[in-house]
Amino acid sequence: MCLGIPMRITAVDGFIAHCEAKGVQRDVNLFMLQDEPLQVDDYVMVHIGYAIQKISHQDAQTAWELYDQVLAGET
Predict the structure, then answer these.
(1) Per residue in 53-70, pLDDT tens?
(2) What CATH code is carried by the domain that includes residue 60?
């Protein structure tokens, strides 16, 4: 099973985005989304260091709510 993590872009430098989620910051490769216009405050789904999909703020929030429920042991 693969897990994508929604992250907010805080800066873009070529094919590298500086992203943040829940206080964690990572550099994310944008190569797979090179035809997608991405900018600061956009949300992307990140898998093994690569942005694989641009998502809405609402989709990112929903994903984090689900992840939080799983981590809390809720069903």
Answers:
(1) 999 999 999 999 998 998
(2) 2.30.30.140
CB of 38 within 8 A of CB of 73? no
Q: In the chain, how many domains are there?
A: 1
Cβ neighbours around 44 below 10 Å, total: 26
Nearest to 5 by CA among 40, 58, 48, 69: 48
pTM: 0.89
Distance CA 74, CA 30 (A): 33
Domain with 24, as residue range(s), is: 5-72
